[in-house]
């Protein structure tokens, strides 16, 4: 048996599985989980190399999806609804391909089933490396080191949630080396054969991750897909407009 992912399972009823994005952890979709747990069983997961889950040199969508399938089997869960944001959206799509009969519905938050060709995280990776190199002794020093590379305060705050203390220095919970080594694979994508599971793609209006030009790729891989645009939001639509995203999810479920 391979190593199991760290997870949190709450509530009762139909199981919803929440999968976070790059540099995240199972708390990232906590705003969604806290609402949905009133009516559903919610499984929140730390993907490999993130949160409290195990570290590995391998970080492909196939391996990440297999981790989730192993966890679902371990917990005896089938007939699930998968909800994934960003990288977690791609993991959710791959899980659906692997166990199509066990997935009732799929919801993808601001991610397309395509390869992206532009490096989007250079400044983030420099900021993470600066913290690794300098070994700051507290969180605020780590954040100020990041600020030399990462302009947006919200991004620094988000990343800082994955800092923890090792001996006398701050370190990252996610596996920075594995993310750097596998970065183009994380941006990449192997086209899936057509999946009939009812699927909803939710786009942040101002985000460029999910675009009109991706429509053909989506329809080829997910012929049973619908789309919904959340206005005045970027890539972090669930953090910017949680009520609206929750309403969209509940309507689709």
UniProtKB/TrEMBL annotation:
<protein>
    <submittedName>
        <fullName>Alpha/beta fold hydrolase</fullName>
    </submittedName>
</protein>
<dbReference type="InterPro" id="IPR029058">
    <property type="entry name" value="AB_hydrolase_fold"/>
</dbReference>
<keyword id="KW-0378">Hydrolase</keyword>
<feature type="domain" description="AB hydrolase-1">
    <location>
        <begin position="15"/>
        <end position="242"/>
    </location>
</feature>
<dbReference type="InterPro" id="IPR000073">
    <property type="entry name" value="AB_hydrolase_1"/>
</dbReference>
<dbReference type="GO" id="GO:0016787">
    <property type="term" value="F:hydrolase activity"/>
</dbReference>
<dbReference type="Pfam" id="PF00561">
    <property type="entry name" value="Abhydrolase_1"/>
</dbReference>
<dbReference type="InterPro" id="IPR000639">
    <property type="entry name" value="Epox_hydrolase-like"/>
</dbReference>
């Amino acid at each position: 048996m391979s190593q199991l992912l760290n997870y949190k399972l709450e509530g009762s009823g139909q199981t919803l599985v929440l999968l976070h994005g790059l540099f995240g952890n199972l708390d990232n979709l906590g705003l969604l989980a806290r609402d949905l747990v009133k009516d559903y069983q919610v499984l929140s997961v730390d993907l490999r190399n993130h949160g409290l889950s195990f570290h590995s040199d391998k970080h492909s969508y196939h391996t990440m999806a297999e981790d989730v399938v192993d966890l679902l089997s371990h917990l005896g869960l089938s007939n699930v609804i998968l909800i994934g944001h960003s990288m977690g959206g791609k993991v959710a799509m791959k899980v659906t391909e692997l166990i199509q009969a066990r997935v009732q519905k799929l919801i993808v938050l601001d991610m397309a089933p395509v390869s992206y060709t532009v490096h989007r995280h250079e400044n983030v990776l420099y900021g993470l490396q600066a913290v690794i190199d300098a070994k700051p002794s507290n969180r605020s020093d780590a954040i100020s080191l990041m600020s030399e590379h990462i302009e947006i305060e919200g991004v620094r705050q988000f990343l800082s949630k994955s800092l923890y203390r090792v001996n006398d220095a701050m370190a990252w919970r996610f596996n920075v080396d594995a993310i750097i080594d596998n970065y183009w694979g994380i941006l990449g994508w192997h086209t899936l054969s057509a999946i009939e599971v009812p699927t909803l793609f939710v786009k942040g209006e101002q985000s460029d991750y999910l675009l009109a030009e991706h429509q053909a790729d989506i329809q080829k891989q997910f012929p049973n897909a619908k789309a919904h645009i959340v206005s005045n939001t970027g890539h972090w639509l669930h953090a910017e407009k949680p009520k609206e995203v929750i309403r969209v999810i509940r309507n689709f479920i």
